[in-house]
Each structure stands twice: as C-alpha cells, then as structure tokens.
Amino acid sequence: MKGWEDLASTALVGTGRRPYRGDLLADAAVEVARRRAGRRTDESAPPAPAPAEEQAAVGRRAAERLVRIIGGDHERLLPEWLAAAAATGRRVPAYALPELLERGRRDRSIRVHLGVLAGRRGRWLAGLDPAWDYLLEEPTGETWELGGAADRRAHLRALRAADPARARRLLESTWERETPDDRAEFVEVLADGLSMDDEPFLEEALDDRRREVRQAAANLLTRLPGSRMSQRMAARVSACVSVTGQTIAVDPPKECDRAMERDGIRPKPPRGIGERAWWLQQVIARAPLSIWGGPPAALLKLKIPDWDAEVKAAWVRAAVLQKDPEWARAMFGWDPIADLLEALPPDEQQELAAHFVKNHDLDSQLIMVLGGVSSHWREGLATAVLRKIVKVAATQPWNLGELVKLAGEHIDPALFLLAESYSPVEPIQQVAALLRFRADMYKELVP
After folding, report:
1. Which stretches of 108-210 are DSSP H helices?
2. Residues 6 or more apart from 222 whose CB is under 8 A from it?
C-alpha cells in the first residue's frame, strides 16, 4: 500500500483531470489514522464504507479554485471561500477533505463551516482519525435534542434571533444539565436580542461555579444599565470617583471583596498593572456610562489629577463592553483601537476608518484599525486606502505588503474595475488582481 503522503497527494492532485477515487481517499485516511495510533495498516480490518452524500458538491470551477487556495494561491482567502460556500448549502469535493481536515486541526478559525461543508464523508473521515475528530463537534444541522454542542448553539442562536424569550426559556430548561464549557458559550448566545427580560437569568448565572460563565454573564449585564449588577457598579464608582467643576477626583478601591468578584471583577491584575488601578478600571468599565452625566467629548477635556490614564482606559473598555456608539466615537479619537469600531454600524465604521487612513501614517496601528472594519469595504474607504497605497508606493514601497493584502482581501470585490483604473502602480494592480480573483470566486459559487 502507498504511504500517507502519496495517497493524500493522489487524492488531492488532478482536480478536473480525472474522477474522484473514493477508495484512495479511504486508504489515505485509514493509513494516517493508524500510523498516528502506532499500527500498521494490515493489522486492522478495513473501515465501513463511506456513506453516500446528501448534499450536492460545489461546481468544478469552484472546486478548482479551492484547491488553488489550499495550495498557496492567496491562502488567506480560505476562510472567506469556506464561508461563501457554506452559504450555498453545498459541500466541498471529497478529494479536498484530507487537506481541509488537517488545516482545521491546526487552525480553529476555519472550523466553523466545516461541519456542513465536509458532508457525510468528512464526518466519516473524522471518525477514523482522532486528530480530525474536532469535526464531530461542529454544526451539522441537527436539532437541540439530538445535536452535539455546536449544533445546539446554532439551534439556540437561530431561535434567539426569531424569538428571544423562547430561546432563553429553552436554555433555562436544560441549564443544570449542561457542561460548564457549554454553559459559558450558551450565555454568549443571549447577546443577540438582549433585554431586561434576560436579567434575572443572568443575575443567577453570576453564582455559577465556572469563572467563564460568570464573566460571560457579567459582560451581558454590563450592557443592561438597569440591571442590578450595573447599579452595584454605579455605586462603587460613586464611592471612588467624584466630578467637581472641571476636575475628576479619583480614589481607587482599596480591596476586591467577594461581592466584586461575583460581579465579574478579577482580583489579580495582569503583569505591569497595580491592583488598585486594575480594580478601578474594571469597576468603571462595568458601570453604566450614563452615570458620568455629560457627553464623552466634554468629559475628555476635564482634568484628572491622578489616575488619568486608568480612567480613560476604563472608558474605552466601557464603550466596548456596552457597545455605546457615542462613547466609542469619542474614545476612538483618544485611543483609536479596532475594538471600538464594533460598537458602530458598518457604514460609520468605514467612514471613521477612511478619515483615520487619510490623516494617519502607515504603521501597525493603521493596519490594526483597518483589520477591525467589517468587510466588504465600499467605495469611500476603498478609495482612501488606494490613495494611501499610491502615496506610500512613491516613498516607502517596501512598507506596503500588509496594506496591499488587507485591501485586496476586504474591499468589495465588485470594485475591481475601480482599483484597476485607479493607478498603474504595481501595488494597486496587485490589489485589483486579488479583487478580481475574489469576484470570480463568488461567481463560481453561485449554484
């Protein structure tokens, strides 16, 4: 029998040149599974045949492009291809499964769509190799009662979008039987459609034995200014902060008691931050932003004689946790970080990012900000980025690598003609070529 490398190569190479050989795929999967288990192939009985597929596979051209991407042609587009393919309800071709499953073993970020895209044969393969059995935990479309953890999260998420109260009641009905890991992830699903109706359940979750569950519940309660936890945080801020005229006086908490820990305050600070500064930042971040009694732009102008940086860092964290657009807008001007953009609608994200690109030099901060803007970038942001590329190409062409990749990966691919005609400089044409590659990719995936 051929070795795993030869078999996998045979299964992967030759797309479009010869039909898929299911026996080769089976041999390859079995061989690698047994070698990892320390057994020779002939020491065990062959596995049961792979089940027949229920889903149609993507078309030949789409499959060929997937193989190109897997092979290193614009490899960073793999998550986008998988997401677009999953949206069609089709599966990947069987000959691509070994490499995709191996990629998923190393890269958790691509697993989210593999449960559906891998089809029945992919799950059969995952059952042959412990290194690939993560796939058995990814969504497949099963129901709340019959599905695994990922299927149940997907079911709860869909129900939450349609009927928030019913989704919460369903979770409450099985809460005591859920594993700690599942409880933490189920709580996070409640972020969609969050309201004060969820407050009693989340308040009880603060008493969970698992820290991740308590943190998830506290994060959601922070977004409910009327919650009991938010009001307790407001009282803590009032005890250590006072605003008088043009000055904010601060006296951070002197201890982190059990009540604070229950409300999500972590007692042990990260390296480099003092305990009191750490507790202060967390308390302010979880208190309703309305307690400050004024617009954030005005508050940023006030004098804070002591703990200035800590207070403002806490305001940034509060804007992120509470998803407050006004505060996110103001704090982005003080500390332009990508997390703040998540509190803004996509159009405003792009407007703010375009303004930042126009007025900021190309550095790691600009790259991080752009990385936080939702795709697909429309003409305003696209034009600002293309202009920046042309400008930098004339002075620092060696510094353009990541910006060119981000532009090609995030600009709306329908704008490839805009990029092609914008400038003849090589970096712009590289962006245009990648946009055209993506535009073709989406066309090929249309059923």
Report:
1. 114-117, 119-126, 149-162, 164-174, 180-189, 199-205
2. 229, 230, 233, 264, 285, 286, 318, 321, 322
E-state strands within 280-388? none
Q: How far apart are CA 320 and CA 102, in angstroms?
A: 35
Res 51: pLDDT: 84
CA distance 296 to 73: 46
Tens digits of per-residue pLDDT, 306-354? 999 999 999 999 999 999 999 999 999 999 999 999 999 999 999 999 9
**Is there a contact between 210 and 175 (Cβ–Cβ < 8 Å)?**
no
Whether the predicted model's global pTM rises above the 0.90 cut? no
Q: What is the DSSP letter of 261?
A: H
End-to-end CA distance of the chain: 38
- Spatial contact of 218 and 229, defined as CB atoms under 8 Å apart: yes
Element housing 80 (H / E): helix 78-88
Rounded Cα gap, residues 274 and 306, in angstroms: 14
Q: Could you report the per-residue pLDDT of 138-185, keeping only the tens digit for each?
A: 766 556 666 667 778 888 888 999 999 999 999 999 899 888 888 999
Count of CB atoms within 10 A of residue 74's CB?
19
Q: Label residue 190 exposed, middle or buried (CB < 10 Å: 0-12, 13-18, 19+).
A: buried
